[in-house]
Write a structure and sequence with these properties.
The complex is a heterodimer of chains A (343) and B (509). Chain A has 343 residues and is an all-alpha fold. In chain A, 76% of the residues lie in helices and 0% in strands. In chain B, strands 6-7-8-3-9-10 form a six-stranded mixed beta sheet, with helices on both faces. Chain B has a six-stranded mixed beta sheet with strand order 16-17-18-13-19-20, sandwiched between helices. Chain B is globular. The N and C termini of chain B lie far apart (54 Å). The chains are: A mainly alpha (343), B alpha/beta (509).
């Protein structure tokens, strides 16, 4: 598998610049808010990377974000703006919970995530292909429907009789083994990395991936080439559904201590949206997504340390994330800078 | 005594960010009140030079003088302030606005609450139109107007900004012969009002007819400036191409055989739901090139898209080798031996962000050769294929991994022709196969189409380039407003007759 290195360098540098700008802007705002930015960042990075424990926490936070990022990235490569990962995660988690409680093994849990993902993501796919509904509109609305529907199921259908704060848990036999004892890092991380590599493989080494990318770049050329863009759209949604359904599944099957959905779905909420940022920073490239996923995981894992040691609230970390995403998402800013520099 | 020039450009060099050297030290001087032709082939640098003069591009090196004073334009607004305005080849009109609002667009005042003084604008425009002795409806959406009228609105838009120097980029490219004549009348009136006009063209006849002086550009350099009444089309052609303009095309006589494509009473709608193709019937035989000539926008695009499975057929039949293929999808047609060189290579024929290798299998990628187990794509086979067709067709590429957007237009087009031929088709649709392509590639592609014909393939050629049609076709049809005005043999008609037919006037013989 040969990879064209030159094609990677420019986006890599641009993403790195965006990260640096995000960190610097974050520092300025931290300073204005009365915190010591240097101390805060040291706490952040030390907490996330300074120890084996930190690394483990980083990678475990990364796990679901890689999968949801793949949903968005695959969509973007097919010319779609699919932001429906968020809602799909909930159903992936619920399906995994239910199936593992019936059959009690990992495979059935993963299968549950996959089926739920396909089913839920099939809705915007169907609406787009047969009714011409813009996927941005449909996926935003479906995210809200998913939220309340999932909340209903969580509260009413699968509550834990012994603990009102969460749902029934994944049985021991269907939990991913922990890689490093005493941390939250389980072999679920491997699922994420394998999914990303597979997504790369599908996109660049199969005829299906070729058709997806052609449709994404240029729909007219696709039609001309005998490719059915509708088919490409359906595939993109369905594969995206699989990855974000898996995100929900691995989150409940591989994340100690609860192995369940907590009240208000706090432990599975937000990964779909994080995934958009991860994908953008990773340039919608499955392999790039692995690395940007780890960076975002680092921010998440380090945030706790930053809060404890520098007294900076968690919201500040999310702000830094936001700045980075905005910086990357506006390539125009770079062009603008280039022009200003030349003047 | 030489008259002092109104505009003087000195040593203009333009290097594009991708390293293309579009202009290599060009000098140009234009006198007040003259119509100055700027002649050259596609890619000679005419448009680039004029974009610099109109402030849209900044030169890498060189100086510009207006009335002897050096100027530096940062934007088209600066050029307009110096009385220089340009009418672009591709109109810059807002389709759904009416003429008036298109014209005053950007001049309506920039305050939040400033009002548009429509009456004053109308008054000024009416005076402009009276002076030029033409009328255009200014109160209907421009998209409903014919191209010739839209062009006048563009011209009015520029004149409304009080320019003295009007630059026209290939203004006749989209006009019928009659519209061209009307445009020339307008230009002559402008000249009588002491306006200066720079007329960009690659059409010798027009340059001979309308200009006072001509500057010829070739590959980013000035070959010379001559007085029009002291030169001849032949001399200009030689300056333009750098050799005798005769393309080396050899077409041995050949008897056409059985029909390969039969089109019967075909009706197709255009993008605006209007009838674009109105009951066409024709056939293309094995071993012939059937040409369709006509001004662009008379249904050619819709016809080709319908035949190649990309557009819905409302009524009628398309038959390939006796098999009804009406409304079949492109993939099925390719499997039946159809190849299609589309008119729009950037938006249809190629995926410009993708590599040469990836583009070389576009529309062939499902074939057995390129498929591995479980839907895998065999890149080594694709690369072999790309290397082979690039070599066979002498396509100049930096590498087969390079994105096709890094290729020149001519090489992009050759790549498409190479790919389509590699499908080993029985029937080839070639739509504008040499548009925007350099002379050498043009010659190559034209000879190639003739080769296909000699090998007993059926070729359907659609081109806005009349010379191309005349040179290649065994039989040709002239299309006007979705109907054939006539089907003739190229050697049996004069160019004038065809010109008339392209304008919708029936051939009498």
């Amino acid at each position: 598998m040969r990879v064209d290195i030159r094609g990677f360098i420019k986006p890599l540098i641009e993403s790195l610049i965006a990260i640096v700008i995000g960190i610097l802007l974050g520092a300025i705002i931290l300073a204005f808010s009365g915190y010591n930015p240097i101390k805060a960042y040291i706490a952040l990075f030390d907490g996330a990377l300074g120890s084996k424990y930190g690394w483990a926490m980083t990678l475990s936070a990364t796990t679901p974000m890689i999968l949801t990022a793949l949903t968005f990235g695959l969509g973007a490569r097919t010319g779609l703006f699919n932001i429906g990962a968020e809602g799909t995660v909930y159903f992936g988690a619920i399906a995994a919970l239910i199936l593992t409680n019936i059959w009690g093994n990992i495979l059935m849990g993963l299968l549950g995530g996959i089926i739920a993902g396909i089913a839920w993501m099939g809705i915007p796919a169907f609406l787009k292909v047969f009714r011409g509904v813009n996927e941005v509109v449909s996926t935003i609305m479906l995210n809200w429907m998913a939220y309340f529907l999932a909340l209903y199921i969580v509260l009413q259908k699968i509550p834990n009789p012994d603990d009102p704060n969460k749902t029934i848990a994944v049985p021991l036999s269907a939990r991913f083994p922990i890689i490093i004892r005493g941390t939250e890092l389980s072999w679920a991380f491997a699922i994420s990395v394998i999914a990303a590599v597979l997504a790369y493989y599908v996109l660049w080494h199969t005829t299906l991936g070729y058709e997806l990318r052609v449709s994404g770049y240029n729909e007219r050329a696709a039609r001309y080439a005998g490719i059915n863009p509708k088919k490409a759209i359906i595939w993109s949604f369905l594969i995206g559904g699989i990855t974000s359904g898996l995100a929900g599944a691995v989150e409940v099957m591989g994340r100690p201590p609860s192995y369940a959905i907590s009240q208000g779905m706090a432990n599975i909420y937000g990964y779909g949206f994080d995934g958009i940022g991860v994908s953008l920073v990773g340039r919608n490239h499955p392999l790039g997504i692995i690395f940007s996923g780890i960076f975002f995981g680092m921010l998440k894992a380090g945030a706790t340390a930053m809060q404890i040691e520098a007294g900076v609230p968690l919201e500040m970390v999310r702000m830094v994330q936001g700045i980075i995403v905005v910086t990357v998402a506006i390539p125009g800013i770079l062009d603008l800078l280039k022009r200003v520099v030349r003047k | 005594m030489e008259e002092a020039p109104l505009i003087k450009m000195e040593g203009i060099v333009k290097i594009y960010p991708d390293g293309t050297k579009a202009l290599k030290g060009v000098d140009l001087s234009v006198r007040k009140g003259e119509i100055h032709g700027l002649l050259g082939e596609n890619g000679a640098g005419k448009t680039t030079l004029m974009k610099i003069l109109s402030g849209m591009l900044r030169p890498t090196e060189g100086k510009i003088f207006v009335n002897g004073k050096e100027v530096r334009f940062k934007s088209p607004a600066d050029a307009l302030a110096n009385g220089i305005g340009m009418v672009h080849q591709h109109f810059t009109l807002v389709d759904v606005f009416d003429g008036l609002h298109n014209i005053i667009l950007g001049m309506e005042g920039h305050g939040l609450f400033s009002k548009i003084d429509v009456e004053k604008a109308m008054e000024k425009l009416q005076k402009l139109m009276d002076d030029l002795n033409f009328q255009v409806p200014l109160d209907v959406p421009v998209e409903t107007l014919p191209v010739g009228v839209q062009q006048r609105i563009e011209i009015l838009k520029t004149l409304y900004r009080d320019v003295d120097v009007l630059i026209l980029d290939e203004p006749t490219a989209v006009l019928t012969p009659i519209e061209v004549k009307e445009l020339f009348d307008v230009l002559k009136k402008l000249k009588a009002q002491d306006k200066t006009i720079i007329f960009i063209s690659h059409k010798l006849k027009e340059v001979m007819e309308i200009t006072d002086r001509v500057t010829v550009l070739r590959k980013g350099e000035v070959i010379g400036t001559v007085n029009t009444n002291e030169t001849s089309p032949k001399e200009l052609a030689k300056m333009m191409v750098g050799r005798e303009v005769v393309l080396r095309i050899e077409k041995p006589p050949k008897e056409a055989e059985n029909p390969v494509l039969q089109v019967q009473d075909l009706w197709v709608k255009g993008d605006r739901d209007q009838d674009a193709v109105k009951g066409l019937t024709f056939e293309v035989k094995a071993g012939e090139i059937f040409g369709i000539a006509g001004v662009e926008g008379n249904g050619q695009t819709e016809l080709i898209e319908a035949i190649s499975g990309l557009r819905k057929i409302e009524k009628g039949k398309v038959i390939l080798n006796g098999k009804d293929i009406t409304g079949r999808p492109p993939k099925e047609l390719y499997d039946l031996g159809v190849a299609h060189i589309p008119e729009d290579r950037i938006h249809m024929g190629l995926v410009s962000e993708m590599s040469v290798a990836e583009n070389s299998i576009l529309g062939l990628h499902w074939r057995e050769t390129f498929r591995g187990p479980i839907g895998m794509l065999r890149w080594n086979k694709a690369k072999e294929h790309a290397t082979k067709i690039v070599k066979n067709f002498e396509v100049l590429v930096p590498s087969i991994e390079a994105p096709v957007k890094s290729l020149s237009g001519g090489n992009q087009q050759k790549l498409i022709v190479a790919r389509e031929t590699s499908k080993q088709p029985e029937f080839i649709i070639a739509s504008q196969p040499t548009r925007g392509v350099d002379v050498a590639s043009t010659e190559y592609i034209r000879n190639y189409l003739i080769n296909l014909r000699n090998e007993n393939k059926a070729v359907l050629l659609v081109s806005a380039d009349l010379d191309e049609i005349l040179q290649l076709s065994d039989r040709m049809a002239i299309i006007y407003e979705g109907k054939f005005v006539g089907i003739v043999k190229p050697e049996e008609v004069t160019e004038e007759e065809i010109g008339l037919m392209m304008g919708g006037i029936k051939h009498e013989s």
